[in-house]
């Protein structure tokens, strides 16, 4: 593992200690790579993933020409918010997973808010 990734994981561990997703307000964790972005909603009280989506999923993959840019992060955020509403999740705790809050992570978060999610 590279030094940069190790530092991100260290930051994520530090951030995660202060966050606890519950049934009423689960934790939304975002992960980005160079070519894709994924997110999952977790209930930390029981240690379960409520649902997850990724730009690698078959149903979503066709909607993007390239999933590693700002435009696709916005589209993915809107799709994720729509799916969350269908699953009955509207309030979450946003966990940026040690990534800086800019670029694709920020675009994803703003698209979630635009889609009706609260955090």
- Number of helix segments? 4
- Round the mean pLDDT to the nearest integer and report it: 93
Largest sheet features: 4 strands, mixed
CATH fold name: Nucleotidyltransferase, domain 5
End-to-end distance, in Å? 32 Å
Strand order of the largest sheet: 3-2-1-4
Count of individual beta strands: 4
The first-level CATH class name: Alpha Beta
Beta-strand level of the residues, as a percent range? 15-25%
Q: What's the SSE pattern? A: HEEEHHEH
Work out the count of structural domains: 1
CATH architecture: 2-Layer Sandwich
Shape: globular
Helix content: 25-40%
Helix/strand/pairing category: alpha+beta
Ranges with pLDDT <50 over ≥5 residues?
none
Report the radius of gyration as a whole number of Å.
14 Å
Core attributes:
119 residues, alpha+beta, Nucleotidyltransferase, domain 5, four-stranded mixed β-sheet, 39% helix, globular
Short description, anyone?
With 119 residues, the protein is an alpha+beta fold.
Describe this structure in words.
- The chain is built from four helices and four strands.
- With 119 residues, the chain is an alpha+beta fold.
- It has one domain: Nucleotidyltransferase, domain 5, CATH 3.30.420.100.
- A four-stranded mixed sheet has the order 3-2-1-4, sandwiched between helices.
- A hairpin with a 4-residue loop joins β2 and β3.
- The longest helix has 18 residues.
- It is globular.
């Amino acid at each position: 593992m590279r030094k940069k990734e190790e530092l991100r994981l260290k930051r994520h561990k530090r951030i995660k200690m202060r966050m606890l997703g519950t049934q009423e307000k689960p934790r939304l964790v975002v992960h980005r790579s160079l070519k894709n972005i994924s997110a999952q909603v977790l209930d930390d009280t029981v240690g379960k993933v409520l649902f997850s989506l990724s730009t690698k999923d078959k149903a979503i993959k066709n909607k993007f020409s390239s999933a590693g840019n700002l435009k696709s992060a916005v589209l993915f955020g809107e799709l994720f918010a729509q799916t969350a509403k269908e699953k009955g999740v509207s309030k979450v705790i946003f966990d940026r997973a040690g990534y800086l809050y800019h670029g694709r992570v920020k675009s994803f978060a703003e698209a979630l808010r635009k889609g009706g999610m609260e955090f």
